[in-house]
Amino acid sequence: MTDSGIQSFFERLQGKAHQAASRLADQHVKLAVTGLSGAGKTAFITSLVNQLLESTGSANLPFFTVSKESRLIGAKRVTQPDLRLARFAYEQGMDALNAELPSWPTPTRGVSQIRLHLRYKPGQGVSKYLFDQSTLILDILDYPGEWLLDLPLLGMDYAQWSAFCVKQMQEGARVSLSEPFRAALQEMKWLGQGDELKLQGLATLFRQYLAECKQQGLELIQPGRFVLPGELEGAPVLQFVPYIANQTDIDWQSLPAGSNLALLVDRYNEYRSKVVKPFYKAYFSDLDRQIVLVDCLSALNRGEQAFDELQQAINWILKSFDYGKNSLLRRMFSPRIDKLIFAASKADHVTPDQHDNLIRLLESMVHSARQDMQYQGVKLQTTALAAIRASQVGQTLYQGQRLSVLTGHGLQGETLTLYPGDVPSRRPAPTFWQKQGFEFPQFAPPARDPLTALPHIRMDQMLEFLLGDKLV
């Protein structure tokens, strides 16, 4: 080994030792920001970083105890722990938000990471008397929401996944959207000699079907890399399709070697073992805290099938994480998520009197998952927040009555003043979708002084719940 190689080895060893010491002292938090595409993960992380960096200045954080008590000395961004990952584009996101015509940060197209050091004065316990200050390490990962839906594939073999896809294609808008793909399969010789060009063409049609489902606002898009392939664009590992025929006619244990079906099974298994599993083990197996962002309002806008798929997707994804109380040994070697917030994002897109309904709607969507986590000892909270508040609340007279309305700007810069409607407090009845009385808007970010913290709704309460106990 060369001198530089030896130095690199010891630097990595030193980094791991430092991380282990931080975990042992309970001064290291890995935060999972979980949400499907469009839930607002990148905007949320940008705002979270901004609130912490501005916490000793212009940030408005009355419910964040360490800030309220003036014990938070400051926050600093440091080099992310995994140098193979991209640097989270915080500065580029802030540039977009601070532009003359503000725009939202660019959605994530790959995996990126950010690490913050939070320096604070201990407020209680032995540390208050032994140390003038302490430092909490906070790691956050950003990734495409599309890839998140691949995690449940780890518990499904090819036949099970195919059966799930067949069932999906028989439901609602998916029937017509899948028709070109299903028609192309009519001449498929599943047990015939493998034809890679044929499979490539079918995979292209399957990807088109999934992309159209995404455009229609449907949420259960699997495999996720088919609509956002990243570095795997064009790779054979993304060229497989579900088996759509009578499964009772197939002996899955003795498929003809080299047949089309055998190739599809091999590629599906390769996708799970070489793409999904490493992604899960690298980023989702040692988390401490979690926030699950759910865009309930967009799902309500898009209709019954989109809403139901969102609910199923969120509950399905949550089964991929490890929850429970953290002991000292677990924190060192196999940490679990011991605190979790379910957050309805974009709370600034409805009037404040609808926030309680929005929270209850989200609670109804994750009811079963909440029960399971509470049984495992996880501390839970459900809230509605806006990582970057884009609207203001005003008043108007309508038919002689004073009505709360939202004011702001649309994505093209136009002025908006509207009442978006009432939020249902639980999954709406089928008749609801036939006479929707609302359309939740899309607001542009607000124009503001670039030297001030981003406006928000309840980000301070989120910080207190997820990090407050680590900053005492």
Automatic annotation (TrEMBL):
InterPro entries: P-loop_NTPase (IPR027417), YcjX-like (IPR007413). It holds the Pfam family DUF463. It comes from the Bacteria. This is YcjX family protein.
